Amino acid sequence: MARLDQVITNIVDIFLEYAEGEGNKNQLNKDELKKVLEQEIQSPELKSKINAGDIEEAMEMLDKNHDGEVNFREFCRCVCDLAKCYYHKKTGKGGKRNKSKEQEGCPED
Ligand SMILES: [Ca+2]
Ligand SMILES: [Ca+2]
């Protein structure tokens, strides 16, 4: 499978795998979200962007329509935001490293 094929199917498969754990099978509740963040994100750089240790905060950040769970659309946005953060880190484009103000959706440490 080509790399983008892989990325796309992975995003969908990971979401579905965790979402069908309990409750609504098309949404991640707090426990499910915590598991995804803990198990599917290992890179410290990305982990620092979304803290599974404070799941209340992570949920608030991701749950754009405020229904208490993360749907696929919200999950995609999260993955996309992480990709953008990684891109900025790698290229130095976008977020300024020594800027005191936090970048929207991509806080710089
Ligand atoms: Ca669920
Ligand atoms: Ca939601």
UniProtKB/TrEMBL annotation:
Per its UniProt record, what Pfam families does this chain match? Answer: EF-hand_1 (PF00036), S_100 (PF01023)
A GO MF annotation of the entry reads: transition metal ion binding
**Residue ranges of region Disordered?**
90-109
InterPro entries documented for this protein = EF-hand-dom_pair (IPR011992), EF_Hand_1_Ca_BS (IPR018247), EF_hand_dom (IPR002048), S-100_dom (IPR034325), S100_Ca-bd_sub (IPR013787)
Q: Which residues form the signal peptide?
A: none
Where is this chain compositionally biased, Basic and acidic residues type? 100-109
Q: Which UniProt keywords apply?
A: Calcium, Metal-binding
Task: Give the UniProt entry's GO cellular component terms.
Answer: extracellular space; perinuclear region of cytoplasm
Any idea where the EF-hand domain is? 50-85
Bias (Basic residues) occurs at 90-99
Q: Which domain of life is it from?
A: Eukaryota
Is the keyword Metal-binding in the record?
A: yes
The protein, known as? EF-hand domain-containing protein
User: Which species?
Assistant: Channa striata
